[in-house]
């Protein structure tokens, strides 16, 4: 537990200080946000606001994790290493996308094909290693599982290894792009991510306390390295919290794709490694709504030959164009995110109670 507190506290401090430094450095070098011409008119005032702030989140949480492990005298586990690989890897893809946007002064960074290939390669490597038999622990458990899971593995939905990797890749792509779509208002994605990562900190601590290795029983959890995953979750939660200080309206810095792809990938990583893949859709319900709004908008537009279901997608822009102030949309969406997280945690605990 000391590691969890240390990782969260150190990451929080690192981002509070590091983001202030990043704002100055990025502004000095002209690394400012480009704004879509077809977006809400009020967003044009944000043009030039420093972006790529997700770099601070990724660095602060990664350093915070390893410092916490060093100070507590514990080594990292394979589960944590794999999760950080996914987190940093997708953050790197996002960084390249952001950098190209700024360098070429266009709202399109990496070509869609190159971005897709980058995300896919990282997700495939993560998925393969998560299921690789060579990484089994003394109990014969790999970090991930080829079975689709809700709160535990669904034994009747056990996939062949290759299909398990495909499922993992799809989940990672969906989660990373969902957070990316949500990152459109000051503090919206950061605040929502803080809540979900905070929830995964609690889930991992609970899974550790009720681990089948410690407390065998009908409701115990067959999850590998849950306490170390809690340390990673706490580190990312603290980093998001610290970044929110500067990213809240009016934002002095944006996370960019560097942050949104990394955070979305990490959420999928936690769902995979904690055997809560379907539960993620509830804990991250706000991200699901945002993605569905885009899918419905595109589908409706094509089916009706030009008509729109929403004034603009993702969903937060629809409410802006209805006349809601940006901060109102953000706070109400935070409330929705909190309700989804609370419901998800309630379902998680209720399942344990029902099983005891």
TrEMBL record:
It is an enzyme of class 2 (transferase). It catalyses: UDP-N-acetyl-alpha-D-muramoyl-L-alanyl-gamma-D-glutamyl-meso-2,6-diaminopimeloyl-D-alanyl-D-alanine + di-trans,octa-cis-undecaprenyl phosphate = di-trans,octa-cis-undecaprenyl diphospho-N-acetyl-alpha-D-muramoyl-L-alanyl-D-glutamyl-meso-2,6-diaminopimeloyl-D-alanyl-D-alanine + UMP. Mg(2+) binds at residues 180, 257. Its main location: membrane. The chain crosses the membrane at residues 6-27, 48-71, 77-96, 116-135, 155-175, 187-207, 227-246, 253-272, 278-301, 321-350. It is a multi-pass membrane protein. Signal peptide: none annotated. GO terms for biological process: cell division; cell wall organization; peptidoglycan biosynthetic process; regulation of cell shape. The keyword Membrane applies. Its EC number is 2.7.8.13. CDD domains: GT_MraY. It holds the Pfam family Glycos_transf_4. Its cofactor is Mg(2+). Keywords: Cell cycle, Cell division, Cell membrane, Cell shape, Cell wall biogenesis/degradation, Magnesium, Membrane, Metal-binding, Peptidoglycan synthesis, Transferase, Transmembrane, Transmembrane helix. This is Phospho-N-acetylmuramoyl-pentapeptide-transferase. It comes from Nocardioides mangrovicus.
């Amino acid at each position: 537990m000391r590691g969890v507190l240390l990782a969260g506290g150190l990451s929080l401090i690192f981002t509070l200080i590091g983001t202030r430094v990043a704002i100055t450095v990025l502004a000095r070098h002209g690394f400012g946000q480009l704004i879509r011409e077809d977006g809400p008119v009020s967003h044009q005032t944000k043009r030039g606001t420093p972006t790529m702030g997700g770099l601070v989140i990724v660095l602060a949480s990664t350093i915070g994790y390893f410092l916490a492990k060093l100070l507590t005298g514990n080594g990292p586990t394979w589960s944590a290493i794999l999760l950080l690989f996914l987190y940093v890897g997708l953050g790197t893809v996002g960084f390249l996308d952001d950098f190209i946007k700024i360098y070429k002064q266009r709202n399109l960074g990496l070509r869609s094909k190159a971005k897709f290939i980058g995300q896919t390669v990282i997700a495939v490597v993560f998925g393969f290693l998560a299921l690789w038999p060579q990484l089994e622990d003394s109990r014969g458990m790999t970090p991930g599982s080829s079975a689709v899971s809700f709160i535990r593995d669904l034994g009747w939905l056990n996939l062949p290894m290759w299909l398990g990797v495909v499922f993992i890749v799809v989940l990672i792509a969906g989660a990373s792009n969902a957070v990316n779509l949500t990152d459109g208002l000051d503090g919206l994605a950061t605040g929502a991510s803080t809540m979900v990562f905070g929830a995964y900190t609690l889930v991992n601590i609970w899974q550790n306390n009720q681990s089948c290795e410690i407390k065998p029983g009908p409701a115990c959890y067959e999850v590998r390295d849950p306490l170390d995953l809690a340390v990673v979750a706490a580190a990312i939660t603290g980093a998001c919290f610290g970044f929110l200080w500067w990213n809240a309206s009016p934002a002095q810095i944006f996370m960019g794709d560097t942050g949104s792809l990394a955070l979305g990938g990490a959420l999928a990583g936690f769902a995979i490694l904690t055997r809560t893949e379907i539960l993620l859709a509830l804990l991250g319900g706000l991200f699901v709504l945002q993605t569905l709004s885009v899918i419905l908008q595109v589908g409706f537009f094509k089916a009706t030959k030009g008509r729109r279901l929403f004034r603009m997608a993702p969903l937060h822009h629809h409410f802006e164009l209805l006349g809601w102030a940006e901060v109102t949309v953000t706070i109400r969406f935070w409330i929705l995110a909190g309700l989804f997280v609370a419901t998800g945690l309630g379902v998680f605990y209720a399942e344990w109670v029902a099983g005891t």
